Amino acid sequence: MSETYEQLLQLQRNYFYSGETKDVHFRIQQLKKLKNAIKANEKKLSDALRKDLNKSDFESYLTELGVLYNEITEAVKHVKAWAKPRKVKMPITHVGSDSYIYPEPYGVSLIISPWNFPVNLTIAPIIGAIAAGCCAIVKPSELTPNTSGILAHLLKQTFEDRYIAVVEGDVATSKALLALNFDHIFFTGSVTVGKVVMEAAAKHLTPITLELGGKSPTIVHKDAKLDVAAKRIAWGKFTNAGQTCVAPDYLLIHKSIKERFLEKLMYQIKDQFGDDVTQNSDYPRVVNGSHFDRLLSYMKDGTIVFGGRSIRERLFIAPTILENVTWNSAVMEEEIFGPILPVIEYETEQEVIDMVRKRPNSLALYLFAENKKMEQVVLKHLSFGGGCINDVIYHVGTTRLPFGGVGSSGIGAYHGKYSFDAFSHEKGVMHQSTKIDIPFRYHKTKGGLKVLKRIMK
Ligand code: NAD
């Protein structure tokens, strides 16, 4: 099999070398083709998402399809400008020269995607690859097989294998692909597998983009507007049944408002997802039995103060709030990635900083506060991929902000222009004049050192 993958890689590399994918008009055409193909298959994709994760049409459009349309529209509109060489002003030491930065596609990229937003997280990197002028081999997740099948079909109908090819398969397939010498790897998935990908990339020194996960803290400060905070947190935590890389993982709440806030949060969960969530046919399910078991085991790590209901045959877990958790329990050591929200109280700002700093850098962080001082403390002292003040998750739904982690939550970023950048190398080239030749840099120039000291300081 890996021989076949090697051949596929070679096929794409040959096509990349033909230069066709670098033509900006070609890129625009392909982006439009991709948009049309998604539109034509919208119903099939939504149905597959329903089968794989019980996502509603509303949720699928909001979090998967709609964001892709925005991404494609933005790329079609701006790719010409993004791809243009940019002139750079040079210092006195380089007088006479003209210098440019040439954005250059990496070549053939390997894109590996996860199951939680299987359409969005497979297609969004492809948009970046096309915009940048790359070819790509794409491996969707095996855990959402209906969606993966539709994606494979859709992409095969739209693009030739030599340009964008899909390889369906599990871990073994992923490993076989990772063994090859790609020009770039774009991986979205867990921290554990991210390390496997980085190790594989290191063998060939392949540039990588790692979009990973982690535990994203959500802080509700004493002066937060509690109604809107509860509404937004309930929405962001339990959308996709909490199986979102940027979902609020745990809540840090000021002691003085904890009881009032939890009441409002419970009200919001019922209001948005139903008094009896088991009757809500649009509430997503957990992806498979092993994730279901993992999530249920977290329930023992604290006191259930809301929810806690589960039905194994339906892979259903109700929105659940846990209190009395400790930092050394599994629910606080691992990324939850499900509809369970542990709550920890604090009294001082310093406590918040200390607690968050003890964990690896998160992909997201959210703060609900009206007071600017708390905002400054958090922004100044905590490192995280991105996030929101007074909202959750919504920062990811725009093409204008880079989306990516830092440290253990990832390397690099994408969305909008940042997707183009993720698949491009910036080649800096100086065009030197032959009409003049300033002497000071040459050995043995009389007074050269004196000139150097005057201009290089
Ligand atoms: P995962 O890491 O288990 O799998 C991701 C992909 O890697 C899949 O295609 C899978 O086939 C492949 N894979 C799995 N094990 C592998 C191995 N040993 N070697 C090579 N390839 C392997 O992740 P998942 O369970 O699909 O997704 C959930 C994780 O992804 C969570 O940690 C979540 O936070 C993260 N995530 C991050 C983002 C982001 O944008 N940063 C988005 C969604 C999910």
Would you give an account of this structure?
The protein folds into two domains: 2-212 and 410-429, Aldehyde Dehydrogenase, Chain A, domain 1 (3-Layer(aba) Sandwich), CATH 3.40.605; 217-404, Aldehyde Dehydrogenase, Chain A, domain 2, CATH 3.40.309. It is globular, with a radius of gyration of 25 Å. 45% of the residues are buried. The chain is of the alpha/beta class. It has helices at 2-18, 24-40, 42-53, 57-83, 120-132, 145-158, 171-178, 191-204, 226-238, 258-273, 289-298, 330-333, 349-358, 372-381, 417-422, 448-455, and strands at residues 86-88, 98-105, 108-112, 135-139, 164-166, 184-188, 208-211, 217-220, 250-254, 303-306, 310-311, 316-317, 320-323, 340-346, 362-368, 384-389, 410-411, 424-431. Strands 10-13-14-9-8-15-16 form a seven-stranded mixed sheet. A six-stranded mixed sheet has the order 5-4-3-6-7-17, sandwiched between helices. Strands 1-2-18 form a three-stranded antiparallel sheet.
In short:
The protein starts with a helix and ends with a helix.
Write the layout of secondary structure elements.
Layout: H1 2-18, H2 24-40, H3 42-53, H4 57-83, E1 86-88, E2 98-105, E3 108-112, H5 120-132, E4 135-139, H6 145-158, E5 164-166, H7 171-178, E6 184-188, H8 191-204, E7 208-211, E8 217-220, H9 226-238, E9 250-254, H10 258-273, H11 289-298, E10 303-306, E11 310-311, E12 316-317, E13 320-323, H12 330-333, E14 340-346, H13 349-358, E15 362-368, H14 372-381, E16 384-389, E17 410-411, H15 417-422, E18 424-431, H16 448-455
Parallel strand pairs: 3-4, 3-6, 4-5, 6-7, 8-9, 8-15, 9-14, 13-14, 15-16
Antiparallel strand pairs: 1-2, 2-18, 7-17, 10-13, 11-12
Helix pairs in contact: 2-4, 2-5, 2-6, 3-4, 3-6, 4-5, 9-10
Bound molecules: nicotinamide-adenine-dinucleotide.
Nicotinamide-adenine-dinucleotide (NAD) is lined by residues 112-116, 121, 139, 141-142, 170-171, 174-175, 178, 188-190, 193, 196, 211-213, 245, 335, 337, 363, 410.
